[in-house]
Amino acid sequence: MVSTIRPSRGYRVFQGVNGVILTLVVLITLYPFVNIVARSFSGEKEIRAGDVTLWPKGFDLTTYEIVFSDSMFWRNYGNTVLYTVVATAVAMVLTTCYAYVLSKHHLKGRGALVGIAVFTMFFTGGLIPNYVLITSLGLKNSVWAIALPNAISVFNLLVMKAFFESLPSELEEAAQIDGLSTYGVLLRIVLPLSKAVVATMVLFYSVSFWNSWFSAFLYMDRTELMPVTVYLRNLLAGATGGTGAGATTENLTQVNANIQAVTIVLTSLPILCVYPFVQRYFVSGVMLGAVKG
Amino acid sequence: MKNTGQLSRRQILAAAGFIGLAALTGCGSGDGEDAKDLSKKRTGAMKNHRSGQQFKATQPLTFTVLHNDNPNYPMKESWLFWKELTRRTGVTLDATPVPLSDYEKKRSLLIGAGDAPLLIPKTYPGAETAFVSSGAILPVSEYIDLMPNLQDKVRRWNLQPEVDSLRQSDGRSYLLPGLHEKVRQQYSLSFRTDILDQHGLALPTTWDEVHTTLKALREEYPDRYPLTDRWSTNTPFPAGALFQYLGQAHGVRAGWSYLNTTWDATAETFVFTGATDAFRQVVEYLRKLVAEKLMDPESFTQTDEEAVRKLLGERAFAISANAQELVQNYRYNLQRQVKGATIEMIPVPLGPAGPVVMGGGRLENGMMISSKALERDDFVALMQFVDWLWYSDAGQEFCKWGVENTTFTRSGGAGYRLEPGISLMGSDPDAPKDLQKDFGFHNGVFTYGGSWKLVSSSFGPDEKKFTDAMAARKELPTDPPHPLRAEEQEQATLWDTPLKDHVTQNALRFVLGKRPLSEWDDYVKELKAKNMDRYIELHNQAYERFKKENA
User: Fold this and answer.
1) What's the pLDDT at B139?
2) Do the domains at B24-181+363-399 and B184-358+452-551 have one common CATH topology?
3) Which pLDDT tens digit goes with each residue over A19-77?
4) pTM for the full predicted model
5) Which residue from A126, A135, A217 is facing B102, i.e. has the nearest CB?
6) Which helix (H) or strand (E) segment is B54 a member of?
7) Taking residues B468-495, what's their average pLDDT?
8) Cβ A238–B100 below 8 Å, yes or no?
9) pLDDT for the residue A7
10) How many angstroms separate the CA atoms of A281 and A276, rounded?
11) Domain A61-290 has CATH 1.10.3720.10
12) Are B19 and A126 within 8 A, CB to CB?
């Protein structure tokens, strides 16, 4: 006879209240974004009147049209994709190697290696020295100026190191007894077991490279090398600065009204599309890295 | 542990060495050689470069220039501007585009790293001070004799006091400013004229009339504040525009143009602006408006969007404006939302100071030149070129309107007309081409200042009416030069910001009635506690010193 334990009244009330509160939290978190999306499709008159809440009013695509019809937008979008992919790949290789080495307790000078990494969290050379360095290395106006200086995020490094340290060392010993070299252990045993943390780091890195604009702004001298973040940032400044507008009156006021919303939608959309697929690794990845052993 | 400790020390040493190296690179271009012997630097230069004459390099030259890239007309290499410029002057400009959003940041970086292009335009007076001590910027005042067009304009338009105000503590100036023949006023109050007409009210011409007009409006609409204002966010001085033009009517710099120092011409000494009687009158006037519920107290905190929404929703009938906002925003939107609505901008109402405009307003953003230019053989040609393009009538006309019979035609002596099919800032929405986007003229990098005829040639009817009225007013004298030395500058900066903040905060508290005006003397005492007197003393000393050294 199958008997289920009926949840107590108190528990059901708790669950009900919980559900309501969490739904509210979800709505509150979602609202600003939905509102931004709605604004990006709304007419200028309705935005100014403050009528736009959840649904676009006075449907208008002028700003999207202006942005999309500019070949420089697509070019810069392509740059963003390229920079993100290259920089993330470089960052992943370097961070993984560094973290794996640091996780080995028998390594001599491990403390010093950690020290070097941590040192950079507290001290930097400063803007101008960095610029001089990148310039004299001949990295200016190339993807490497973006990928190399930011290749290792110390925070990510430490999370990864903690994760590797939590893997049972018996696994690696067994693999070595079975004849795997050091690299074999890393590539065939450790990495396949670390999908969660790798996915998390890829997400961390790619989001940060996707959103970054400052290093590209510093090290790129030509408009066609800029990522889309710089393009949109400049568009925003031009539309709100009010200095010598080039668009026709009607277009300009429209652009003025919702350029910010359009910008946010365009830059966050790709990340939003990728997120659901990486998200399941994400929680476990961070947790595994954080709670050691 | 010991190991890591040693390493970090080494790292610190390395970092220190690095910074030193960078500083060396930044300061590398001092003027060690005899700066004034220019006989070997005349490659490409004209023998007789005179005012009003076309400059043409005797051999092809290339100069680098930093280009402030405006998203409304992104830089293109195909612009007629570049091609025609090379044809006329023999000079090719090699431009580095920098997004307008962060132009100042990149400019500082490039100058600091010793990597700046030769020509660095779009620099506002005062912004050059930060670069003076590094030696990376050319002391242009030493080479003014190479620039006859500039000299001619300074002389004809009596700009010497303004130009002198740019001098640094070494007596030299490092910025070639944009020069205006007349002060260009941009901001004032705008009123809903249809509402005024409806109630038999006239447009006010003085601040007293503004008060009575607002009062009359309040009586007609007791549930609304007749005046709401904007330009209160993202600015150190809320309601910056209103304070500015109201301050001008009282002869004092307030709002956006607020400066801690004010020149007292009768006493021949600098005084602290926030403690002057004129500043107090400005505050008292606004207090009166707010206390009598004639002005929306949210004016000082709301966003521009909220303020405009109140205007469009007829919850207010007056608001600060400039010609562009008046036409493209207020009027355009009002006409679509409120039937029969009309709105006009009035000349800045007159106050106790009479029909005046603030002095010093005739300098616009201008150009710094990298001191690397001096090391080049073609230095003289560079200065002649800059003189022609930025300061000659022909150069200014070319930058603004382009090529005659290609982009513009002359009409009736003074006027310029765009060729059919070319639009400028929406002047002809159906035109296939745009003067800025497709030809590269009317570009903020190259177009600033000039004769009143040229400056006003692109005004719309509203702006023309407004500026013509304002141009008749008398300009108050410019502050005499009082450049601080580097170490004084550092000290002054430490005092400057807290003083400014205290003035701004308390001006608002007085206006909003959060602090009674009877506490004015306490407020002045608080300023004294924040080193007001020592700050003013510093500037007066600098003034006396400069006067003595440059007598």
Assistant:
1) 95
2) yes
3) 999 999 999 998 888 888 888 888 777 776 667 778 888 788 878 888 888 888 889 99
4) 0.77
5) A217
6) none
7) 86
8) yes
9) 79
10) 10
11) yes
12) yes
CB atoms within 10 A of CB B387: 24
CATH fold of B184-358+452-551 reads D-Maltodextrin-Binding Protein; domain 2 (3.40.190)
The answer, for A248 touching chain B at a CB cutoff of 8 Å, is yes
Q: Is the ipTM of this complex over 0.85?
A: no
- Interior/surface letters B336-374, b for 16+ CB within 10 angstroms, e for the rest: eebeebebbbbbbbbbebeebbbbbbbbbbbbbbbbbbb
Alpha-carbon distance B303 to nearest alpha carbon in chain A (angstroms): 12
Q: How far is CA A239 from CA A233, B123, B442, in A?
A: 10, 21, 17
Alpha helices in A137-242 (DSSP H): 144-147, 154-166, 169-177, 182-184, 191-193, 195-211, 214-219, 228-241
CB contact under 8 A, A115 and B8: yes
Are A246 and B328 in contact (CB < 8 Å)? no
| pLDDT tens digits, one per residue of B273-327 | 999 999 999 999 999 999 999 999 999 999 888 899 899 999 999 999 988 788 8
Q: Which residues of A touch B69 (CB under 8 A)?
A: 223, 234
Contact yes or no for A48 and B19 at CB 8 A = no
- For residue A141, the one-letter residue type is N
At the top level of CATH, which class does the domain B24-181+363-399 belong to? alpha beta
A136-185 confidence digits (pLDDT tens): 999 999 999 999 988 999 999 999 999 898 888 888 888 889 888 988 98
Beta carbons of B209 and B215 less than 8 angstroms apart = no
Of B71, B432, B446, B419, nearest to A246 (Cα)? B71
Tell me the pLDDT tens digit for each residue of A78-91: 999 999 999 999 99
Tell me the pLDDT tens digit for each residue of A208-245.
999 888 989 999 988 889 998 888 888 777 765 543 33
Give A-chain residues touching B101 at CB under 8 angstroms: 230, 233-234, 236-238
Measure in Å the smallest separation between the Cα of A243 and chain B Cα atoms: 9
Residue numbers of B between 280 and 339 with CB closer than 8 Å to A = 305, 308-309, 312-313, 324-325, 327-329, 332-333, 336-337
Domain boundaries, chain A: 61-290
Domains of chain B: which residue ranges?
24-181+363-399, 184-358+452-551
Q: Which residues of chain B make contact with A244, given a CB cutoff of 8 A?
A: 70, 72, 425, 436, 442, 444
Q: Which residue of A has its CA nearest to B26?
A: A128
